[in-house]
């Protein structure tokens, strides 16, 4: 195995995006191997659980998004510097993971109907984001980080979800000033700012039932 880490995933942001963001932010060189849906069947049986992302580094091959993020968090000291921060880091990841599972039905289905889209953005999304906005707003620190004074893997997970919501539904953050401010602040980190406009960032957010879902115009 090469010494340079490799991340294997589809040519979309999807589950790989927080991992890409973290590695880019740290400036860690890695091979961002992005494959098409057509290439996947031939590669499928070579992955541990027939799914991606898979991250490889030296003699380690790691499946599962959150196992990869936790490994990188341990390796680069990004799991929180106190027990309070570590707990907040865990909680933040869980609330966004839950959010991600709950919005999965929007991947394709909502693009079919403007009325469904409006109802989702006006009712379902606020119901999900309200408690998260309150949790983030009450963190009791001047820093923008979700877990406390220092950046953790949770910040990458949170940014990816918030950025995804705002990209898919431009009006999504109108009622959530704290989440909106976090997104803007995080997007200003020098390596992140460069990555967000680079040609290496996949354009598509994820695969929906009708093909790739792109950010709303
Ligand atoms: N729990 C896994 C889920 C991985 C997963 O469902 N990956 C999807 C892409 S998002 C996949 O590889 N699908 C291809 C397939 O199932 O054949 C993780 O978080 O990494």
Q: What does this protein look like?
A:
A hairpin with a 2-residue loop joins strand 5 and strand 6. The protein starts with 5 loop residues before the first strand and ends with a strand. It has two domains: 6-77 and 195-213, Glutaredoxin, CATH 3.40.30; 83-188, Glutathione S-transferase Yfyf (Class Pi), Chain A, domain 2. It contains nine helices and six strands, in the order βαβαββαααααααββ. The mean pLDDT is 94. The chain has 217 residues and is of the alpha+beta class. The strands form two sheets. Strands 2-1-3-4 form a four-stranded mixed β-sheet, covered by helices on one side. The protein has a two-stranded antiparallel sheet with strand order 5-6. Helix 1 crosses helix 9 and helix 4 runs parallel beside helix 7 (153-168). Bound molecules: glutathione (GSH). Glutathione binds next to loops.
Based on the model shown, name its key terms:
single chain; 217 residues; Glutaredoxin; Glutathione S-transferase Yfyf (Class Pi), Chain A, domain 2; two-stranded antiparallel ribbon; 9 helices; 6 strands; globular; binds glutathione
């Amino acid at each position: 195995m090469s010494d340079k880490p490799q991340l294997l995933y589809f040519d979309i942001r999807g589950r790989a995006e927080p991992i890409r963001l973290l590695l880019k932010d740290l400036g860690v060189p890695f091979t961002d191997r992005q494959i098409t849906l057509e290439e996947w069947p031939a590669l499928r049986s070579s992955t541990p659980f027939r799914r991606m992302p898979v991250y490889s580094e030296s003699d380690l091959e790691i499946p599962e998004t959150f196992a990869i993020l936790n490994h990188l968090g341990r390796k680069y000291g990004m799991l929180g510097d106190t027990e309070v921060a570590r707990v907040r880091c865990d909680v933040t990841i869980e609330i966004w993971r839950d959010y991600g599972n709950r919005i999965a039905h929007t991947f394709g289905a909502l693009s079919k109907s403007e009325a469904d889209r409006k109802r989702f953005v006006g009712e379902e999304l606020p119901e999900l984001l309200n408690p998260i906005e309150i949790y983030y707003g009450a963190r009791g620190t001047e820093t923008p980080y979700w877990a406390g004074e220092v950046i953790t893997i949770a910040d990458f997970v949170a940014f990816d979800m918030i950025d995804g919501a705002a990209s898919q539904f431009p009006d999504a953050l109108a009622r959530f000033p704290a989440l909106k401010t976090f997104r803007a602040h995080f997007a200003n980190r020098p390596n992140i700012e460069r990555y967000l406009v680079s040609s290496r960032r996949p354009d598509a957010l994820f695969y929906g039932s009708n093909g790739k879902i792109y950010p709303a115009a």
